[in-house]
């Protein structure tokens, strides 16, 4: 469904933050024995979803060493590239630039489970490549309950003195379970689908706090279950619960985007002469409704 691709388009902004904060001076040797510094590599962001065209974002790397007035401080779209995707069935998708740094295959060139996809283009005179396959769709996805009741908390007066957690709420964890006999990577995401959702906590009008996130997820796991606390939901209404099955390269990238300099400066990638992620995903979806007590 469309929420698979939509979620990754927005979620990648967080998970690839470490790549976009790259460091000048990190080098690697290519097959041609040339040295390619991190700031010279393109950042690729592509999540291949069954039944969808290939969508790929291409940007430059940002440097820690850049000064506030340095052009390298801002990640910029990479335009004018000829990008091809070679499919294991012999087909070749030629991606068209639909906006600055955004490339897509034709509407008839769709990702299919059971095939492998190879990225192929040149950047700064060097070949950039990666290969991925589409994991099988998750099976056995279930939730211990799909209805949650929350009490709305009104902090609009700006005072929190004497605040106590609402009574009457079932605060026991929601258990998400799925089949995982081969210990593949999965994570569960929850996405509020309401056009204008009602927040569970009403903040003061003059608050500088950003709006609560309409989507959240757990970390990738090789287990077959995950616990979600009901208090994590920040809006009333209908939510999609999406179970993603991931390839190991995406899970490694996700885990690398922590708070340490080491994690940020040495992001893992399976892309030759590039950074980022070119990976297949698959998903199953359930519905969770959050009602007001």
List the helices and strands and how they pair.
Layout: H1 2-15, H2 17-20, E1 27-29, E2 35-37, E3 43-48, E4 55-59, E5 83-87, E6 92-99, E7 102-104, E8 116-123, E9 126-133, E10 142-143, E11 147-150, E12 153-154, E13 174-177, E14 185-192, E15 201-202, E16 215-217, E17 225-228, E18 237-246, H3 248-256, H4 261-265, E19 275-292
Parallel strand pairs: 3-19, 11-19, 12-15
Antiparallel strand pairs: 1-2, 3-4, 4-7, 5-6, 5-8, 6-7, 8-9, 10-13, 13-17, 14-16, 14-18, 18-19
Pfam family, one: DUF4249
Protein name: DUF4249 family protein
InterPro entries: DUF4249 (IPR025345)
What does this protein structure show overall?
- The two termini are 31 Å apart.
- The protein folds into 2 domains: 2-135 and 269-281, no CATH class; 142-244 and 286-292, no CATH class.
- With 293 residues, it is mainly beta.
- The chain has helices at 2-15, 17-20, 248-256, 261-265, and strands at residues 27-29, 35-37, 43-48, 55-59, 83-87, 92-99, 102-104, 116-123, 126-133, 142-143, 147-150, 153-154, 174-177, 185-192, 201-202, 215-217, 225-228, 237-246, 275-292.
- Mean pLDDT is 81; it is low at 10-15, 17-33 and 258-265.
- The strands form 4 sheets. Strands 3, 4, 5, 6, 7, 8, 9, 11, 14, 16, 18 and 19 form a 12-stranded mixed β-sheet that branches. The protein has a 3-stranded antiparallel β-sheet with strand order 10-13-17, with no helix packed on it.
- A hairpin with a 4-residue loop joins strand 5 and strand 6 (92-99).
- It is globular and about 65 Å long.
- The chain has 4 helices and 19 strands.
């Amino acid at each position: 469904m469309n929420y698979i691709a939509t979620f990754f388009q927005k979620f990648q902004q967080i998970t690839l933050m470490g790549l976009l904060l790259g460091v000048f001076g990190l080098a690697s040797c290519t097959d041609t024995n040339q040295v390619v510094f991190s700031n010279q590599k393109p950042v690729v962001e592509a999540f291949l979803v069954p039944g969808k065209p290939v969508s790929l974002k291409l940007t430059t790397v940002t440097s820690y060493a850049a000064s506030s007035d340095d052009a390298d401080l801002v990640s910029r779209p990479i335009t004018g590239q000829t990008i091809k995707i070679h499919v294991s069935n012999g087909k070749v998708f030629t991606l068209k630039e639909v906006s600055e740094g955004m490339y897509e295959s034709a509407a008839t060139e769709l990702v299919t489970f059971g095939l492998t996809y190879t990225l192929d283009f040149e950047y700064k005179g060097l070949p950039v490549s990666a290969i991925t396959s589409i994991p099988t769709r998750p099976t056995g996805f279930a939730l211990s309950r799909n209805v949650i009741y929350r009490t709305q908390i009104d902090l609009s007066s700006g005072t929190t003195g004497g605040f106590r957690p609402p009574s009457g709420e079932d605060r026991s964890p929601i258990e998400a379970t799925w089949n995982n006999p081969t210990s593949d990577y999965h994570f569960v995401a929850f996405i509020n689908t309401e056009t204008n959702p009602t927040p569970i906590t009403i903040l003061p009008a003059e608050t500088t706090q950003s709006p609560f996130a309409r989507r959240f997820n757990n970390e990738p796991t090789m287990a077959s279950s995950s616990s979600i606390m009901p208090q994590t939901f920040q809006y009333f209404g209908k939510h999609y619960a999406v179970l993603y099955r991931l390839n190991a390269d995406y899970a490694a990238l996700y885990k690398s985007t922590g708070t340490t300099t080491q994690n940020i400066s040495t992001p893992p990638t399976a892309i030759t002469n590039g950074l980022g992620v070119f990976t297949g995903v698959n998903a199953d979806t359930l519905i969770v409704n959050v009602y007001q007590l």
